[in-house]
Amino acid sequence: GPGRCLPWAPPHAWRSTVGALPGRSPRRSFAAGSPCASSAASAVWGASGKTLQVVDCHAGGEPARVVVGGVPPVPGRTMFEKREYMMQHMDHYRRLLLLEPRGYPCQNANFILPPTHPDASFGYVIAEQNAIYPAMSGHNTICVATALLETGMVPMQEPVTEFTLEAPAGLIGVSARCAGGKAVEVTLRSATSFCRARDMDVTVEVPELGKVTLDVAYGGMHYAIVFADSVGVILEPSRGREICRIGEMIKTAAREQHPVQHPE
Questions:
Q1: Which range is most confident: 56-60, 83-87, 132-136, 190-194?
Q2: Which end of the chain is more exposed for a tag (fewer CB within 10 A), N or C?
Q3: What is the rounded CA–CA span in Å between residue 2 and residue 206?
Q4: Higher-scoring residue by pLDDT: 198, 263
Q5: Local confidence band at 260 (pLDDT 50, 70, 90 cut-offs)
Q6: Distance (Å, rounded) from C-alpha 85 to C-alpha 72?
Q7: Mean per-residue pLDDT, 203-218
Q8: What confidence tens digit (pLDDT) does each residue in 108-151 have?
Q9: What gap in Å lies between CA 16 and CA 151, rounded to an integer?
Q10: Alpha-carbon distance 209 to 88, whole Å?
Q11: Is the sign of the CA dihedral 46, 52, 56, 57 positive or negative?
C-alpha cells in the first residue's frame, strides 16, 4: 500500500507543527542542541542548534522517519559504501532519531542522499533499531518514495510517476499512482532476490517448538521463511503478540544455528 505523510510545507514551518492527522504522522525538525537532545548527539554537535529536517510516514502501519535535510556529506563511491560509513562513523544520527525521547522501538530512519548512479533520482541509507542498516527494506522504500513525491523533491506526474532510487542493495524502480497531489499507491521493483539450495529445508532447534524447518532467502535482507501452520501459528490480528514472540524465537535460532552471508 502507499505511504502516508502530511502535505509539504517549507522547512521553516516544521518547528511549529504540532500533533498529527488521523493515520498520519507530522513533519518534525529535531535540534541536537535543544534541552532534550540525547547525550550522544550533544557530544557531536554541542549546543549549535543544528537541525535535521524529517518527514514521518508509515506504510501499512510500519513507521519510517525520512530525513530530507540536515545530514552532512557522507563519504563513499557507492550507496553501499555510504551505508558502511554511516554505520561506523555516523551512528549518532540513528540514535538521535530512533531512541527516546524522539524515537520508539518500532521507528526506522531513512537518510536521503545524492545518488552515486546516474539513473537514480536520489539515494538513501536505511537505519533501524539495534544498529541495523539493511541494504534494502520494502516499507522504508515505500515511505521514502512517498515523502519525495509529496514534498516535491521528485516532481509528481498524475496519474503515474516513475523514477529510480538508489538503495545500498542497488537500483530500485518506483512506480507511484498519484492523485490530488498524493502518492496513492507505490509499486517497487526491488533488488535481485535469491534463495540458495543450501539455505532451503534448514532445520533449527527452537525453544518451546522443537525442530523447525525453514528456508532462508535474500531480498535486500535475509529472511527466515516458515509455514505458519507448521509451528501452530494462526495469522490473525488477534494473535499478534503470539506471532511476534514465536517469530523472534525462530529468527534468533536461525541466525545462531544457520548463519548466512551475501555472496558479494
A1: 83-87
A2: C
A3: 35
A4: 198
A5: very high
A6: 12
A7: 96
A8: 999 999 999 999 999 999 999 999 999 999 999 999 999 999 99
A9: 17
A10: 37
A11: negative
Under DSSP, is residue 36 helix (H, G, I), strand (E, B) or coil?
Answer: coil
Secondary structure letter of residue 247 according to DSSP: H
Closest listed residue to residue 160, CA positions, set 188, 189, 185: 185
Lookup result for grid cell 501499512: 60
**Are the C-beta atoms of 162 and 18 separated by less than 8 Å?**
no
Reference 20, options 4, 2, 6; nearest CA is 6
- Give the C-alpha separation, 213 to 103, whole Å: 36
> What average pLDDT does the segment 41-65 reach?
76
Distance, in Å, from the CA atom of 31 to the CA atom of 34, rounded to the nearest integer, reads 5
The residue type found at 103 is: G
pLDDT of residue 43: 45
Task: List for the chain the helix, strand, coil content (%; round to 5).
Answer: 30, 30, 40
DSSP three-state, residue 64 = strand
Q: Which residues pair with 204 in a beta bridge?
A: 212
Task: Write out the three cell numbers for 117.
Answer: 548512479
Phi-psi category of residue 172: left, alpha or beta, with phi > 0 → left and psi -120 to 50 → alpha: beta
Name the grid cell of 237: 490480528
Asked if residues 214 and 204 have their Cβ atoms less than 8 Å apart, the reply is yes
Report the distance separating Cα 156 and Cα 8, nearest Å.
Answer: 13
Active site residues per annotation: 137
